[in-house]
Amino acid sequence: MTGDDASERSEEPQTDGGATGADEVALDPWGSSSVSDYRKLFEEFGIEEFDEILPEVPDPHYLMRRGVIFGHRDYRPVAEAMRDGEPFAALSGFMPTGDPHIGHKLVFDEIIWHQQQGGDAYALIADLEAHSARGLSWDEIDEHSRNYLLSLLALGFDPEEGELYRQSTNRAVQDLAFELGIEANFSELGAIYGFDGETDVSHMQSVVTQMADILYPQLEEPKPTVIPVGPDQDPHVRLARDLASRMRAFGVTTAYASFEATDAELAHLSAAYEARGEYAEEAETPRCEEAAAWLAGAREPDAPALESVVDKLENAGMEPLRPRTRFLNRRAGADAFEGLIEAIDGEKRVFEEHVDVFDLEREEARELAREIELEYGGYGFLPPSSIYHRFMTGLTGGKMSSSIPASHISLIDDPEEGYEKVKSATTGGRETAELQRELGGRADECPVYELYAYLLAGDDDEFAKLVYDECVGGERLCGDCKEQAAELMREFLAEHQEKREEVEELLEAAEIELESPRRG
Ligand code: TRP
Ligand code: SF4
Which residues pair with 48 in a beta bridge? Predict the structure, then answer.
């Protein structure tokens, strides 16, 4: 899948608001950040719908309740840890390419909320990425970074509890990036990101650095970790999840005989094992070839993976068919493999590169594998999770872009300017007041409504709903609605900027370096 979409990507960022084809979804971290159809992200990329997990999240944030956070990968372990008071972490990163704006505020809020829920919180400045992929100078980077950090602290990030760092000075991240780079090669990066012979080496290095960022919260101890980002970062999340498992010392799988099987094949094997009484000469020792004959006769001929599993069973011949949990030696040294074998109780069969055990469930086996891995100096990474928020529509329609000042509101815009920008925003209103009263406004397509839902209504769901209902019911007219939004924006900016001043000292006291000694 990753190979296919890479070919659709152009090197140049697209600047339209999805106009290049409403059907196209490309997830490109350095290109367009507009998504024309969120449903496709579920179908084509396997992002899961956030709504389905919402009931499992304790005291969910309003961005979750309102569907602004619309998708996730594997958020369940994070939600569970939060509920059970177990350790978990949240981390995100910011490329300091311009002023922090109200789109970035979503991510700041997400990190802060996870911190308040008891998680270890991390925010990093992606200065290596900004320097290599976007060509920013170190002076520009320093100036922008400071602005991001002040807004993050002003919104409530606690730098004493959480950790702030910049990529360029975090030695542990650099070292981890180097190790992770051993598990990723150029063809893979090419397929995922569309890199080619012209891509510079430092840009590639910034990718492994981001992989290290994502796994950094687990360096001390593996724990569920969520990465709140926009869906354009999903390729990074997928790669980080892959690398996390490639770094594991042992794999744990289920098998029924000496051969390895895919999930689809396992389903057939399990059915054959359950039905052993029907075909096995000795009921307790069904043979692989007997199972092959039964499967070939009893199942739909075109069922997926049926042919391949029948082949495998035939090759295994008289070998008994018997369920087992298998530890595969992926990256473990001889002593760790020995240590694992010793730690397994009960019946086990030891092979060159794997051990089969018969009295251990897969989950327990996973736990044991992680324990031994950690004991012998491995990382034991859990695959990182992610949550995805919708991109805000630009105030001028199209996408919200840092390079179009009127399209966004910067967190350091003068409050008066913020007021004016809201006042001149496009709306989802009708041509005339009369039509608006008759048909109602289109809140779902209105950038001003988004401002209410994403920011201005804050935690007050009733207020957000009131605006929505009044709008679509035709009771709310755009002029007044914008006036109200503009005033709220002015207030928000004034307050935020006051807080920014108050947290100056907090930032000076934080551990992060605010000035880079680098040149260029
Ligand atoms: N690539 C991200 C961006 O384009 C920044 C980033 C770097 C990041 N490291 C990260 C995001 C780790 C999330 C997690 O803005
Ligand atoms: Fe948008 Fe408000 Fe107009 Fe509705 S009334 S379309 S929410 S500006």
Answer: 72
pLDDT tens readout for residues 139-177: 999 999 999 999 999 999 999 999 999 999 999 999 999
Query: Which backbone phi and psi does 164 adopt, to 5 degrees?
Result: -115, 140
Domain boundaries, the chain: 36-248+383-389, 250-375
* pTM, full prediction: 0.90
Give the residue, out of 442, 449, 489, with the most ligand 2 atoms within 8 A of its beta carbon, to mutate for a pocket test: 449
Regarding the beta carbon of 234 and ligand 1, being less than 6 Å apart is answered no
**E strand segments, 50-88:** 69-73
Cα(18) to centroid(ligand 1), Å:
22
Closest ligand to the CA of 469: 2
CA distance 349 to 347: 7
- Residue 424 burial (10 A CB sphere; 0-12, 13-18, 19+): exposed
Topology, domain 36-248+383-389: Rossmann fold (3.40.50)
Alpha-carbon gap, residue 270 to 276, rounded angstroms: 10
For residue 359, the SS3 value is coil
Contact 138, 519 (CB under 8 A): yes
